[in-house]
Amino acid sequence: MEESDRSHFNEMLDNQGNPREPYCRLNAWLSEKPSNFLSRKSKEAETIFRRLGITFAVYGSDEATERLIPFDPIPRILSAREWKTISAGIDQRVRALNAFLRDIYHRQEIIKAGRIPADLVIQNEAFLPEMIGFTPPRKVYAHIIGTDLVRVSEDEFYVLEDNTRTPSGVSYMMENRETMMRMFPDLFQSYRVAPVEHYPDALRQTLESVAPDPAKSAQTVVILTPGIYNSAYFEHAFLADSMGVELVEGRDLFVDEGKVFMRTTREPQQVDVIYRRIDDAFLDPLTFQPDSMLGVPGLFDAYRAGNVTICNAPGTGIADDKAIYAYVPDIIEFYTGQKPILKNVPTWNCSKDDDLAYVLDNLADIVVKEVHGSGGYGMLIGPTASKREIAEFRKVLQANPGNYIAQPTLALSACPTHVASGVAPRHVDLRPFVLIGDRVRITPGGLTRVALKKGSLVVNSSQGGGTKDTWVLED
To answer: Start and end of every Circularly permuted ATP-grasp type domain (predicted)?
Structure first.
C-alpha cells in the first residue's frame, strides 16, 4: 500500500492515520477483506458495465473509439453536515447564474453597474444576440447544471467550474450506485445513504414544469441527440429510457406553422419540451450554422414564439465561460445580496496585461486553461509539465492570451482508491447535478471523478480518469 501524501487533505484518514467518522465502518469493512477482494470486484463491475454498454467515445484517439470509464469500487462518503454546506452553496450559485442570464439578455444591469466588463459579455462567442429580449418559461435559462467542486481541507470546498450548457455524467452516477448496491449489499446497508435513483423522475418533473403551457394535462418531452457517435450517447439513451420519453435526432422533428412536431408511425405529435444535447450552433440551420445536419430548421423561431421550450436555453454557455467564472462571486453578490457560500478558485485572466505577465512568469507553478476548453484538453498543468511543454505553451499563450485563464495548482483532496498495489489515496473532484424549473432540485451526491494515476490532478475520463459512487449520509 502506498504511503499517504500529507500535502493534501485525505478524506478518509486524519493526520494520525485514524479513519474520519464517516469512513469508520468502511475502513473496518475493508480491513476484513482478503487481498484479492477488490480486484475481483473491479472485474465484476467491468463485466456489468460492458454488458450494459456503459461507454463513452474518445474523439481523435488512435485506440478504440468506445471505452469503458474505469470504475473504482471504494465509495466516496460525505457527511450530512458537509452536504448541507455544499447544497446550500450550489442552490445560491445556480439561482444567481440564472438571474445573470436573464439580466444580460435584457436590461444588462450588472454591466451598467460596472460589476462585469461589457466586452467580456457582448464580445463573448457564447453570448447569443438572438436571445436578447426573450424570456423562457419561469424565467429559467439553465435547467440542468453540473457544478464541479474540489475540496482542499475539512471545511473548504471550491467551485472549479459551472457547466450550464449540456452537462454530462448523471447516467454514470446512477449506474455506479446500482453497481455498488448489487456488489456490496452488506456495506451499503450498514450506512444510511441518500438515494439518487429518483433523478429521472425529478428531471421529467422539471422539464414538464417549464413547458410553454405547464397546465396541459400531458406534456410531450423529447431528448434531442446528435446521434450514436456522440461521446455521451449512452447517457442520452439512458435518460430517455429512464424518463419514458422519446430519444430523437433532428430528422425526427419538423416545424409547421410555428410549432414543433415529432414524426411517428401514426400522425405527427406536437412537442412541448426539448432537452437538447447538441450545441447552440447546430440547433437550427436557419438561425445558426447553416450547414448543420443535426438541428431542426425553424426550431429557434418556434422557440421565440413560445411554442416549445428548449432546455437548456440557447445562449446559456456565457454563464459557464471560464472568463466569466472569475466574476461569479460578484454575480452572486449582485443578484442575491449575499456573500458566496462556496469559494471560487483565484483566477488570472490572461487578457489583462498584469495577469498575463504574472502567468508567464509562473507557468511552472500554475494551471492554464482555454476559456472555451473542456475535457482536460488545451490546458497546461505547470508542476507536471516538462520544460519543453512549458516553452511551447508559452508561445501559444503569447499568441492568443485572451483565450486563456490561469489558476493556482490546488492540493485536491484524495480518497481511498483501489490500485494495483492495494488501496491508496487518489485525487478527486465532484460534480453534483442540479435541476431548476418550478423549484431547485439537487440530487444528494453526484459523480465523483478520480485521477487514477499517482500524483495526477486530471480526473477527466478522456484523460484516463475514473469514477466512484458518492454516498451522502442522512442524519
So the answer is: 75-451
Whether 121 and 111 have beta carbons less than 8 Å apart is answered as yes
Query: How do the domains of the chain map onto residue ranges?
Result: 21-340+410-472, 346-408
Arithmetic mean of pLDDT, 6-19: 90
**What values do phi and psi take at 433, rounded to 5?**
-110, 130
Gyration radius from the chain CA atoms: 23
CA atoms of 383 and 412, how far apart (whole Å) = 14
Query: In this structure, how many other beta carbons lie within 10 angstroms of the beta carbon of residue 457?
Result: 20
H/E segment holding residue 273: strand 273-276
Nine cell digits for residue 70: 474505469
By the 8 A CB rule, do 162 and 319 touch? yes
Strand 414-419 and strand 422-431: the pairing is antiparallel
Regarding the domain delimited by 346-408, which CATH topology (the fold level of the hierarchy) does it fall under?
Dna Ligase; domain 1 (3.30.1490)
Distance CA 82, CA 436 (A): 22
Residue 102 region by backbone torsions, left for phi larger than 0, else alpha for psi between -120 and 50, else beta:
alpha
- What SS3 class is residue 408? strand
Compute the residue count for the chain.
Answer: 475
Cell of 264: 411517428
Please count the CA atoms within 13 angstroms of the CA of 368 that sit on its side-chain side: 31
The model's pLDDT over 39-88, given as tens digits with 9 standing for 90+, comes to: 999 999 999 888 877 766 555 545 545 677 889 999 999 999 999 999 99
Taking a C-beta distance cutoff of 8 angstroms, is the pair 53, 66 a contact? no
**Helices 37-52/170-183 angle, 10° precision:** 130
Q: Which amino acid, residue 321? A: D
Return the amino acid letter for 114. Answer: G
Give the pTM.
0.92
What is the spatial distance between Cα 179 and Cα 187, in angstroms, rounded to a whole number? Answer: 13
Element spanning 399, H or E: helix 387-399
For 425-473, give the secondary structure using H, E and C.
EEEEEEECEEEECCCEEECCCCEEEECCCCCCCCCCHHHCCEEEEEEEE
